[in-house]
Amino acid sequence: MVDVAHAFSEDINAPQQPHQISGDADVTADIQLEDVKPGPETRPSKNVSRKTNKRSLWSYLHGEVRRGYQLEEQRYEKRREKFYAFFRIPRALEIFVGYGFLQCADAFLSVLTLLPVRFTLALGLFGARLVGRRRLQPAESCDLLKGLVLLGTWLLVSQVDMSMLYHIVKSQSVIKLYIFFNMLEVADKLFSSFGQDILDALLWTAAEPEQPRARRRLVLLAQLAVALAYVLLHCVLVMLQATTLSVAINSQNKALLTIMMSNNFVELKGMVFKKFAKNNLFQMACSDVRERFHYVVLLLMVIVQTMREYSWRQEQLLNLLGDCLKVLAAEVLVDWVKHAFVTRFNAISWQVYQEYLASLAYDLASSKLHTAPSDHGDLVSRRLGFTPLPLAALVLRVMACPPSSLRLAILAYLCLCSMKVLLNLVILGLACCIVKKHRQTLQEDSPVKQPRRPQSSE
Fold first, then answer.
1. Cα angle vertex 283, ends 290, 81, to 5°?
2. Distance in angstroms between the alpha carbons of the first and the last residue of the chain
3. What is the CA angle 260-276-97, rounded to 5?
4. Cβ contact 379:79 at 8 Å
5. How far is the C-alpha of 425 from the C-alpha of 422, rounded, in Å?
6. What are the distances in angstroms from CA 240 to CA 170, 182, 389, 409?
7. Are 235 and 191 in contact (CB under 8 A)?
8. What is the pTM of this model?
9. Which of 12, 238, 239, 330 is 20 to 30 Å from the Cα of 49, by its Cα?
10. Tens-of-pLDDT digits for all 458 residues of the chain?
11. Which of 329, 378, 418 is nearest to 201 (CA)?
């Protein structure tokens, strides 16, 4: 025991060796105290210890408050550009949506104004063909089939009592109507994406040059029946959408209208955090154009139907316009936020909307050539996913007037024709300016290469 105690006392009284500090430490300090200067493996001197002990809390706080730093120029410059680009998106998007909206309106007015005239001419030429004088051209066959589909849909939809349909929808609960409206929206998108393929198949069967005559007639009749059934179902679906929207706007309790408007913001959850390429963003932008034009036509139908019931009173019109503007404002706001965050998260420049705009302009310019591959309305349908026949049939059903108002109908038709001609001239002039500007931009970027049309998926 004595030997152990003696050894223990010797270890305590032995001089302590300084600890070695490794130079390969992983943690380095960015801020060095001015008064602390470590020496080379020696114990700090008394002067250094005194200076270190003299630092007070006040000096520490003063150093934290007055501490300086310098921002990294490159990083913060990029952050600022992203911030500016975030607020450029709404303007660039609205320019694209506005031009696409005008093209949808032009295709829609073409169905209401030019298609009846072209259908009448094609019907007369078809009668002459039966006599054996001449054969129908592909464009005339397409006009004849489109006219038959539109006329058949209008006659069938005219048998639906919209007043009874309104009261049936109005008697349902708010939750049922909300679920029903969401189902109608999904079905409308599915019909719009698939319906143009049905019509294209019908038109190509009618215009296909090499095909046996007997088989061609059977296939043509079958596809005509399928196309008529599609347009009829889509028109009834749009009619139900308009009726549900009318119930939401005209009800005393605005809960349904509020829920329907808030449903637009639910769309952000499914869109904002997805990965998007430029082609996917273009498809989403085209879908937004079609959806906005679709809502405008529906709201116009709601206003006309409601004002008929109220004998066109001004007070009721102002109330309707206020609610309709709220619905459109919610739609526009959701589109702005959605596109702004999608482009930010996927590092897509706001200038991509100029390329999308040029793509629409090239479509319009190519449809005016003598050797155009398709009608402008068909190009708009394929590009934007907008099928005007169901909406046109609904408008004809709502705007139908008795034979005593024939003069009013003729006057309305002439007004629509004037709007169609003026609108077509406006969008054609804009298309020329957009194409010219796009080609100048391509020449400035690559003066050796020839300007070419921007690639985008249909």
1. 110
2. 96
3. 55
4. no
5. 5
6. 12, 12, 16, 25
7. no
8. 0.78
9. 12
10. 444 444 434 444 444 444 443 444 333 334 343 444 444 444 555 554 455 556 788 887 877 787 766 666 667 777 788 888 888 899 999 999 999 999 999 999 999 999 999 999 988 887 776 666 667 787 888 889 999 999 999 999 988 888 888 888 888 888 888 888 888 888 998 898 888 889 888 888 887 776 666 677 788 899 999 999 999 999 999 999 999 888 888 877 777 777 777 777 777 777 777 788 888 899 999 999 999 999 999 999 989 888 888 878 888 888 888 888 988 988 899 899 899 888 888 888 888 999 999 999 998 888 877 666 667 777 888 888 888 999 999 999 888 766 667 888 889 899 999 999 999 999 999 999 999 998 888 888 765 444 455 554 44
11. 378
User: Using N-to-C axis directions, what is the helix angle for 138-157 and 73-131, rounded to 10°?
Assistant: 90
Handedness of CA 377, 380, 385, 391 (dihedral sign): negative
Find how far residue 61's CA is from the centre of its chain: 54
Q: How far apart are the C-alpha atoms of 398 and 308, rounded to whole Å? A: 11
Are the beta carbons of 227 and 199 closer than 8 angstroms?
A: yes
H-state helical runs in 132-173: 138-157, 162-170
Distance CA 326, CA 318 (A): 13
Give CA separation, 401 vs 69, 267, 395, 405, in Å. 76, 39, 12, 6
Tokens describing residue 17: 């060796």
Pair 279, 457: CB distance under 8 Å: yes
129 Cβ neighbours under 8 A, 6+ residues apart: 135, 136
Say which amino acid occupies 366.
S
- 328: tokens are 């459109």
Phi, psi for residue 339 in degrees, rounded to 5: -70, -35
If we measure between CA atoms, which residue out of 366, 412, 324, 405 comes closest to residue 103? 366
- How much is the CA Rg of the chain, to the nearest whole Å? 35
Residues written for the chain: 458
Q: Residue 410, class by beta-carbon neighbours within 10 Å (0-12 exposed, 13-18 middle, 19+ buried)?
A: exposed
The per-residue DSSP string of 368-382 comes to TSTT-SS-HHHHHHH
Give dist(CA 415, CA 430) in Å, integer.
Answer: 23
